[in-house]
Amino acid sequence: MEHPENSEEYKGLTVNKGIEQPSAINPYLKSFKRPKRRQFTPGEYVEGILKGDVTVLSQAVTLVESVKPEHQTLAQEVIEKCLPYAGNSIRVGISGVPGSGKSTSIDVFGLHVLEEKGGKLAVLAIDPSSERSKGSILGDKTRMEKLSVHPDAFIRPSPSAGSLGGVARKTRETIILCEAAGFDKIFVETVGVGQSETAVHSMVDFFLLIQLAGTGDELQGIKRGIMEMADGIVINKADGDNVEKAKLAATHFRNALHLFPAPESGWTPEVMTYSGFYGIGIKEIWDMVYRYVDFVKANGYFEHRRNEQAKYWMYETINEHLRDSFYNNPEIASLLEVQEREVLDGKATSFAAARKLLDLYFNQKK
Ligand code: GDP
Known about the structure:
By secondary structure, the protein is of the alpha/beta class. It has 3 domains: 38-85, Single alpha-helices involved in coiled-coils or other helix-helix interfaces (Up-down Bundle); 87-297, Rossmann fold, CATH 3.40.50.300; 329-365, no CATH class. Helices cover 49% and strands 11% of the residues. The chain has helices at 42-50, 54-65, 69-82, 102-117, 130-133, 164-180, 195-201, 218-221, 224-229, 243-258, 282-299, 301-327, 330-344, 350-365; strands spanning 90-96, 121-126, 153-155, 185-191, 206-212, 232-236, 270-273. The protein has a 7-stranded parallel beta sheet with strand order 3-2-4-1-5-6-7, with helices on both faces. Bound molecules: guanosine-5'-diphosphate.
């Protein structure tokens, strides 16, 4: 087609015909194949992990995250072998809505605990939205400038494939690998939007909720369930003109917490203000976390919570596999469509339709 700018109407705007761009790729390179990395044996993975080799650890985490059945089998073997060396850490869940300052805070929190307590820190994430966006917004190295270059820190973005339950299970398994590799501090970050908090809460020893001072009605926006999970609530951005507002918000949160039944741990959740950006109040927060750990280790709740979590994950894993096995079954998938239509058209009740599908499934298994 004639370019419109070459028309009589636009005299003086003649556009020359372009020339074909030569290929920038050396044709001889096409035949070059990158040699495939040899797959480690389970024993080699475990050996590398126990030595604290971060490259091997990363590769093992990639296995955990893989959906390929052969990777899954290998991953399970590695996890099982690592299990006796795991558990020796403090696991802290950190949650807050986007913009609450999680990245800024985790960078500062991480540096603080490494400086004060030594050891090694792994930062993991659970991001339910990553499934949709096919990329994780959490755990991105560039968001934690200082930690990402710290020799004793390991940052891993959220696993991205699958359901929230699946994503969370992978993060929980990654915790085991990190602990076996000598990471004695684990942060699990999540974006504060609901369900994912429950998942994080079920794998950490301390749940820290980051909040912001708002217009005075910030309590309305936060779900009761999430507040009940918190072992500590910290109001970020308590700097400049915002200090008084943050203090007021802290008072509101303290008052609200009084209305909840006393937590099973016997620990009264504390509320503090801080500024991640200016590094104000960081030590106080981590003194609180370690005070909590001492407290629950002394009263037995620390062990109790971890045991309950282990049980929870056993059931979660069973549920996840049953669900996958059912929904990934091709015969079920086609009957599902038919039955859904029948229910929508009022030709079958929900229960009858469900029964039919389950019967098909279980008869297949016989
Ligand atoms: P995230 O989305 O929760 O990870 O939040 P970010 O850490 O990316 O922070 C969101 C914005 O808040 C950024 O522009 C930060 O610079 C700013 N911010 C974070 N912490 C503070 C703080 O303590 N004080 C102030 N004034 N701003 C902060």
